[in-house]
Amino acid sequence: MTKHVYQKETTQLMQDLNTTIAGLTQAEAQQKLQEMGLNQLAEAKKKSALFLFLETFKDAMVIVLLIVAIVQMIMGAHVEALVIFAVLLLNSLVSVIQAKKAEGSLDALKKLAAPDASVLRAGQEQSIPAKEIVTGDIVILEAGDYVPADGRLLEASTLKVDEGMLTGESTPAEKEITTLSKEAPIGDRVNMVFSGTIVTYGRGKFLVTATGNTTEIGQVADLLESTTEQKTPLQRGLDLFSKKLSFAILILSLVILGVQLLRIFLDGSVDVTQDILNAFMFAVAVAVAAIPEALQSIVTIVLSLGTKKMAKHHAIIRKLPAVETLGSTSIICTDKTGTLTQNKMTVVDHYLANGQSGEFSTDPKKWQTDEQRLIEISVLANDATISKDGTKLGDPTEIALIDFSENKNQSYQKLRKQYPREDELPFDSDRKLMSTLHTIDQQKIMVTKGGPDIVFERSTKVLRNGQIVEFTAELKNQFQKQNEVFAERALRVLAFAYKEVATDSLTLADEEDLVLVGLLAMIDPPRAEVFQAVADANSAGIQTVMITGDHKTTAVAIAKEIGIFQPGDQALTGVELDQLSEVELAEKLAKITVYARVSPENKIRIVRAWQEKGKISAMTGDGVNDAPALKQADIGIAMGTGTDVAKDAAAMVLTDDNFASIIKAVEVGRNVFDNIKKAVAYLFAGNLGAIIAIVFALAIGWSNPFTALQLLFINLVNDSLPAIALGMEKAEPTIMKRQPRDPNSGIFTGKTLISVTYRGILIALAVITAQWLGNQQSPELGVAMAFTTLILSRTLQTFAARSNTQTSLQVGLFSNKMVLLAILVCGGLFSLTLLPGLREVFAIPGTFALKEIGLALSLATSAVLLMEITKLILVKIQEPKSEIQLTRN
Predict the structure, then answer these.
(1) Rounded distance, CA 543 to CA 618, Å?
(2) Which of 74, 413, 434, 832 gets the most CB atoms within 10 Å of its CB?
(3) pTM
(4) Three-state DSSP state, 159
């Protein structure tokens, strides 16, 4: 089996890369640079704006509208054709702008490259642009440096590297010089450094083994290129609906055209040419009546309103359809650090030789000697500080220790000023200890902190109730058992000890015969609001899955505490996941609620596994390693404090990095989808009414009840405002108690389809009656009556569209004031069509007056009242059935 870079001896690696400890010569480096190319990420060719523009015309409904507009242009209806072209152009431009905004993930990745790096060339240290680094170079690292390429460590002096962007871990990784024998995930490759990570402590030197797209970041870039963004359930639903509707419209229009042409030839028309033109216009009118031209714009506006609501809950939407996708989400794959937890290491327990643990007094005056000494050591053997502006600097573990001291009302600065550091033995990954020298009570004291097992082995005495006693086997056993208890709770534990010395400088030999004081245990604790948020997700039928770069033990402990990991659930590491076949993963998937030590490929595989089961999956993340999975997921959710790469790949950004905000956003998303359904149902009920009226007129030989311009005015102008107002309806009280909707279900299902059909029939009956009344005087008045009744009944049905089960009075007449405003504005818009000059444009004759308007209004109001009364009757009929069902249950 081929060995990985971290498994080979460094001497072998140098031979493989044709280099030495002195580095490459300038000539060798230039030769490699020509062969391998620059140390930067390759960028795939982006779609041009023109290509994106043309892609928008692939939609079935758009194609039908284009055909209609072209036919109208040929037949001389230039105004109507230009209106349709303008609408299509506007929709296309909006789509292109959105698509261009979404590009940028690779641009953000490229920015991560360090501008310059220190390398050895022929034994001489020099600074070169990072993009000129090649494999075989020897790179020198100092605290604060960006790592410019992947490589194997040759030297490491207390070296710590923040690899969170790749591994998801909250604490810097401690590096050491070693050769690993087994395969290991990125987070466990302690002898490697990776491009784009940051050195937080110490210094080192490494051999470059990968550059550009062959680095770990480069592989993430490749995944981003190969990962396809998922269409949202709404997009899929509307696409399917558009295809079906477009096909139905074409068939209906052709049938109507065929019937009319047949009539013309059978009746022996005098003016065949004019009659054929009229037949074409009639068929075109059907298409115009059926297609909701403003649908895309209205959906976009309703989604935009949803983004404003979500922003109040700390959720910034980057891609509009993501608003609705959240409402369909059934799986949330969430990171642990910072999302479920506070991303702040916190001391949560302690242990002293007298058995004391748990709560620690916040009054230093009440502390015994043991407690006082424990706090002193934790603060003095510590390099972390808090600046004047409150910024905390240093290792997260050490910051947790000074926070603990401050929270217990013991100023760490006061202690350090009282007992200044005189010498030190810095932390070393081999010793796993840190010691500092101070003068305490006129005595030279060395204080030490480190790994519990190491400190236990080096201690011969223990501080117990203020007295120094022998560190017996029994006491050692007690400390070891307590350390195991802390470990089972996934707590990170440090041991603290001290020793009197008779010297002004420390040596490694001094770190023996220590006096053990006690233990401090810490963890990155869960956010307080996460417990309820997870419970709310469960009640909404949403399963929460933790995917983290942290260790399995820590991940499971947190998952259990907050309710994600239940009895019978399983936890897997990335390595264990790799060993499962696709079939095995599919069988176990529902029970695996924790994934630990995962790679970017693992995350994509998990998301795809859920998607193959037909589940809408959300994925959270903040690092470069999360970006491919964020793009693959149905909705990617990046953290506000995360990398630009993650944000660019995501559809939503959480400004507070809080899981609870996701659940609040889900509620808004569900409400947005409900409102989109109400708006779409409103549009199609009105369009159905118009189509029925047209077909009826054709069947009995009446003239077309509407002109194409009248229908365009209703579809594009009049109907838009009520549909948008319906997008502002408040959420139903039980919205978070129901299961996520089936992503494969259509827009019109169940009660919605019945409601749309019923309302459409009532509107049609009102319009047909109006045309009949108008025809008694003239066909022109019949058209005016039909148009007026259609526009009024469609406007007033806004009240009925607010709910399928409740009347507008029951919902609250003033609970959505935008509905009332929209209806008033629509009334004003209709009155404009009656003005001199516009009457002729909208085919309204002079004989059309107040009497006719009153008749039309009466017919429209009657239709809407029937809609509302029917709801009341149906609810009364269903109530006994509901009570019987409840009794049986």
Answers:
(1) 10
(2) 434
(3) 0.67
(4) strand
Rounded distance, CA 337 to CA 447, Å?
31
**Distance from chain centroid for Cα 241:** 26
Asked whether the beta carbons of 683 and 747 are under 8 A apart, the reply is no
Report the run of H or E that residue 100 belongs to, with start and end: helix 78-102
Question: What's the burial of 188, exposed, middle or buried (CB within 10 Å: 0-12/13-18/19+)?
Answer: middle
Distance of CA 125 to the CA centre of its chain: 45
Please give the average pLDDT of every successive group of 10 residues along the chain, which has 889 residues.
82 92 92 90 66 70 73 73 73 62 46 70 90 93 86 90 75 87 87 88 91 85 62 66 76 82 74 74 71 72 80 80 81 88 91 92 89 96 88 88 94 95 87 93 95 96 96 96 91 96 92 96 92 93 91 89 94 93 95 90 92 91 78 87 74 86 88 87 91 89 84 81 90 84 71 89 97 95 96 95 85 91 94 91 91 96 95 73 38
- Which H helix or E strand runs over 708? helix 708-712
Of how many residues is the chain composed?
889
For the residues of 549-563, what is the DSSP string, one character each? SS-HHHHHHHHHHHT
Tokens matching residue 640: 């506000």
Tell me, what DSSP letter sits at residue 110?
H
On whether the CB atoms of residues 767 and 706 are closer than 8 A, the answer is no
Cβ-in-10-Å burial (0-12, 13-18, 19+) of 166 comes to buried
Active site residues: 335
Taking the C-alpha atoms of residue 409 and residue 411, their distance in angstroms, rounded to an integer, is: 6
Burial 81-116 (b: 16+ CB within 10 A, else e): bebbbebbeebbeebbeebeeeeebbebbbebbbee
Q: Phi then psi for 629, rounded to 5 degrees?
A: -70, -35
The first and second tokens of residue 380, run together, are 């003095």
Two tokens at 75?
Answer: 């037949």
Q: Which bin fits 391, alpha (ψ -120 to 50), beta or left (φ > 0)?
A: beta
